[in-house]
Amino acid sequence: MTQLKRSMQEASRYSIGTLVPGKGIFAGPWQPAGGLWHGRPAQLFAAPQDLVNASGQQHFKFHEAAIEVARLQNWHGHDGAPREDFIFEEIVNGTYRGQWFIPPMIFLSGIDRDHRPVFDYSLYKNKAVGAFAGTFATGSKPYSYWSSTLSSHGSVQSTDFSDRPDDPSHIHVWSAPDFSYRCRPVRLEVPGFGS
Question: Under a CB-based contact definition with an 8 Å cutoff, are residues 184 and 136 in contact?
Answer without folding.
Answer: yes
